[in-house]
Amino acid sequence: MIDITMIKFAVLADCFHCPVKGEFAFNIDWLLLIDHQGDIAATYQPQHPEYADLLATFKRNDSLQVIPKGEYLLPGLVDLHCHAPQWPQAGKGLDLPLYDWLQNYTFPLENRYSDNDFAANVYQDVTKTLLANGTTSAVYFASIHRQSTELLAQTCLNVGQRAFVGKVNMDNSDQCPAYYCEPSVTQAIDDTELFVNNVFELAGNQSRLVHPVITPRFVPSCTSELLQQLGGLVQRYDLHMQTHCSESDWARDYSIQHYGVSDVTIYADMGLLNNKSILAHSIFLNQADIEKINQFKAGIGHCPLSNMYFANAAMPTRELLDHGVQIGLGSDIAGAPSPSIFRASFDAVSHSRVREEGVDIYLPASKRGTANARISFVEAFWMATVGGGQVLDAKVGLFEQGYHFDAIVIKANSAIGNLRIWPEFDSAKDILEKIITLAQPENVAKVWVQGNAVI
Ligand SMILES: [Zn+2]
User: Which PANTHER family match (predicted)?
Assistant: First the structure.
């Protein structure tokens, strides 16, 4: 029998999660025990011999949270790629290609974050919005400004979101506007190292709910000296690293022209890759890139909606999953407008289906698309939860002993909202598919991060 004094509370719920890639489990009346650290201590099915006694004990102690029927417990969602300072730009400005979009819209906005008051306002809003959409773990690019990036890290702690926050590094004066460019490699590195230590030492961050992330924006915006020294920080502190990888024709070609090799090789050579590296997009990968990503146990943040606007091509998600590449999903605010990882899951499926069917009506159906390119809704949900956790090397995305209790409750059939479940017609698989495709913030009834109720 489990030691009850170790348990902070128990949850009784109908639960979905994906212990196996491509499959889901639906556990009715599951009992999850959460310890005082906010981790899952144990799970019990109703047929377990100790189930009834445990249930009675937690009811008696008033430490049982019962999730009503018609509501479902899911692992919290993981957003592997979100530009927090671009939140005011979400939903507009998608009319330009990547280079022009950065220069005309994004860099002027990001430069506003030298103003801490402006930053505080936006960062409070974006972190709360992501939580309201069910995102319990978020990986944020901030801006080049150390102080307001620390403010973002502090805001994540305050709202109770698990977060991976990076001060952006960009020092290539050929590519960055003069007003938004690090003055020197030395200053960029000193600032970044100070940022890393300050995040570790934030009041309330003893359990490392918020992690600093080394964040070279991408190859074109950084000099090779800066990339190299950032790689040194990754190695010295064993840190997470996030960047953009082979996102578009232009970005891919820039690396080939300037380094003669692909982004993945550049990042590996600079010491930037490890088992906690998040390579956003990663559209134009060759076989050697894929093998190198697997060799380092690095991972990809797939941002399907953003890819439609900026990537010039579609990610071969099916093939990457089949190659065992660690892959999760990203919103890519504001390269795409939606802060929802349910939406990213839906888009990942649609993206793969368009790729499978093809688009050119002048080709015969047999030659139009790429056979067997589709992914399933369950695979998309796996990426949104388990896959994201794997990329981060974090114990999130599953309801298993030892995992952090990061969870959301989805309420169907609420007065306002699109998610309708018809018990007579909907199987468990149908319900999960409907949640992925139709759930909105109004359906996210409760959110826990590390065992703390934050919504
Ligand atoms: Zn991005």
Answer: GUANINE DEAMINASE
Look at strands 135-141 and 452-453 and give their pairing.
unpaired
Quick one: which H or E segment has residue 16? strand 7-17
Give the Å distance between the CA of 96 and the centre of ligand 1: 15
pLDDT digits (tens, 9 = 90+) for 28-59: 999 999 999 999 999 999 999 999 999 999 99
Distance from the alpha carbon of residue 280 to the mean position of ligand 1, in angstroms: 7
CATH number for the domain that contains residue 235: 3.20.20.140
Bond into 334 cis (ω within 30): yes
Q: Do 287 and 147 belong together in one domain?
A: yes
Query: In 10 A of CB 249, how many CB atoms?
Result: 15
Distance 116 CA to ligand 1 centre (A): 22
How many angstroms is it from 425 CA to the middle of ligand 1? 40
- Examine the domain organization and report whether 234 and 279 are in the same domain: yes
Ligand 1 centroid, distance to 84 Cα (angstroms): 10
CA–centroid distance, residue 150 to ligand 1 (Å): 19
Taking the C-alpha atoms of residue 283 and residue 328, their distance in angstroms, rounded to an integer, is: 14
Cα 328 to Cα 325: distance, rounded to the nearest angstrom:
10
CA of residue 174 to ligand 1 center, whole Å:
20
Whether 4 shows a pLDDT value over 90: the answer reads: yes
Contacts 24+ apart (CB under 8 A), 22-30: 22/376, 22/378, 22/379, 22/382, 23/378, 24/378, 24/381, 24/382, 24/428, 24/429, 24/432, 26/428, 26/431, 26/432, 30/73, 30/399
**Residue 286 Cα to ligand 1 middle (Å):** 21
Give 166 Cα–ligand 1 centroid separation in angstroms: 12
Transcribe 139-162 into DSSP letters.
EEE--S-HHHHHHHHHHHHHHT-E
Question: Residue 40: which CATH number?
Answer: 2.30.40.10
- Please give the distance, rounded to the nearest whole angstrom, from the Cα atom of residue 301 to the centre of ligand 1: 10
First CA to last CA distance, the chain: 32
Beta-ladder partners of 72:
14, 410
**Residue 372 is part of which domain span?**
77-392
Q: Do 188 and 238 sit in the same domain of this protein? A: yes
The answer to whether residues 160 and 307 belong to one domain is yes
Same domain, 315 and 430: no
Domain identity same for 51 and 142: no
pLDDT in tens, 215-241: 999 999 999 999 999 999 999 999 999
- Residue 384's nearest CA partner among 428, 427, 432, 336 is 432
Given 392, 409, 427, the domain boundary residue is 392
